[in-house]
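User: Predict the complex with manganese (II) ion.
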Amino acid sequence: MVPDCDSRPAACAHPLKFSHHGSCPVASFPPALPVSEQRRQAEITRRTAETAIDCQLSLAGEPGKIATGIPFFDHMLDQIARHGRFGLSLSCNGDLQVDQHHTVEDCGIVLGEAIAAALGDKAGIVRFASAYAPLDEALARSVIDLSGRAGLFFRATFSRQSAGDFELQLVREFFQGFANAAQATVHIDLLEGNNAHHQVEAIFKSFALALADAVAVRDPGGAVPSTKGSL
Ligand SMILES: [Mn+2]
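Assistant: Here is the predicted structure with manganese (II) ion placed in the model:
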């Protein structure tokens, strides 16, 4: 059945503009977001002696500005925003004169905190999700369970020690910070690849795709997806 645009609460929910007033030509497009989804956002400010981070996250929004002082890392966080379809603005002023460790780890912590805050009690969410992402010859897989338990299982060997000026041993630290703060089980595997830029970017893309699916609302107003009753 093709739904009629006029039968929807806010006319046609499709983001494209239509000049017609008949049936919506994109019958498979999901209906307008429920109210509970529209509140799914968080603002995190974190200050330590090592980093100062401000983050705004909306689980459904336009990508914002990301500036950590590490251009390649910005490029990776932008992958999360763009392919996760998150509204993410993040600025970090970290002690890069020491090295990149605190900046990268703390950005992972803040993103995890923001996801957890935006999800609240997780009622009605999908919870489990996985995704593969290729980037040319590179292939990565991420599997996420928003379980309430922190765990990172990271299996990646990069062909170089850095991409741009980004130290690739810190990729693990980013996801460890995220998993700890989001209280999520995260499995990441780099399955194929030769080019270090491709290898890292495939990981971030697969993570973005899996996270977008895990946080999605399956059952608006529904139960917490756990036999325990809480996550
Ligand atoms: Mn790239």
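The domain at 36-215 is CATH 3.30.230.40 (Ribosomal Protein S5; domain 2).
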